[in-house]
Amino acid sequence: MTELQALIFDVDGTLADTERDGHRVAFNRAFAERGLDWEWSVELYGELLAVTGGKERIKYYLQRINADTRAYGYGDDFIAELHAVKTKLFVELLEQGQIPLRPGVQRLLNEARRQRLRLAIATTTTPENVTALLENTLGRESISWFEVIAAGDIVPAKKPASDIYDHALRELAIDPRHCLAFEDSSNGLKSSLGAHLKTIISVSYYTADEDFSGATLVLNHLGEPDQPCHVIAGDLHGVTFLDIEAVRRQHTL
Ligand code: XBP
Ligand code: MG
């Protein structure tokens, strides 16, 4: 019997659509603050998202896209310091309430807690970003709702490697058959599937056209009673938003 016991959530794109108006804006502000004339447009940032992790993304940009010869002198310490500025600016955006949770997220978390499901997070993003997002949307005490917050550089290989989900599962001391993951991107899906997790996708701004083969269900968002979601792949069995009963049904498929 593989009863559902735990839900593991990605953060960026899944809990909130953070990339275009959050991370991208913070990167550009950090570049300006450090006197760099780099500008990541909405379109360019979509390409850069193929690389998960902010520090890794800056490095890739310097190696492959920015032909500025000054860039050759920018080593890992410089990138780490620039990225710390970006994290500070991203947290400021969250504190200003600029980045809301996606439809259905708060409702589903509340229902999961009422039904005593265990909760965890598995994300590429920096731990401060997770804490700030939770605190500024769900309140300070919401950090404690999550038994495990697996984030950032805690594992050597970021998504699409399965390491971050493997780590979260180890910390939860649970078999993946008792869990279900929530993701928004193909890199995230590769990671969760690599950890043998059934996965529900809610596509986000940058990921709508990605390949989600292997996902149990693909939605435009999780939906609310007054805001029906749209099924992109899979079967929601006639309901118009994802509640825990629907999650349990997906888990048995
Ligand atoms: C999210 C990311 C992150 C964020 C930025 O991927 O790729 O890098 O863009 O966060 P996922 P940091 O949702 O698949 O976990 O700058 O803190 O790395
Ligand atoms: Mg994501």
Walk me through what this model shows.
- The protein has nine helices and seven strands; from the N terminus they run E-H-H-H-H-H-E-H-E-H-E-H-E-E-E-H.
- The protein has helices spanning 19-33, 42-48, 54-65, 76-95, 105-114, 127-138, 163-172, 186-194, 244-252; strands spanning 6-9, 118-123, 148-151, 179-183, 198-202, 217-219, 231-233.
- What structural category characterises the helix and strand content? alpha/beta
Cα separation of the termini: 13 Å
Query: Number of helix segments?
Result: 9
What is the chain-wise order of helices and strands? EHHHHHEHEHEHEEEH
Q: Name the overall outline.
A: globular
Query: What is the subunit arrangement here?
Result: single chain
Largest sheet: 7 strands, mixed
| Spans where pLDDT lies below 50 across 5 or more residues | none
Give the spatial strand order of the biggest sheet. 3-2-1-4-5-6-7
Instruction: Compute the number of strand runs.
Output: 7
Give average pLDDT, whole number.
94
Bound ligand species = xylulose-1,5-bisphosphate, magnesium ion
Percentage of helical residues?
A: 40-55%
Strand residue content: 5-15%
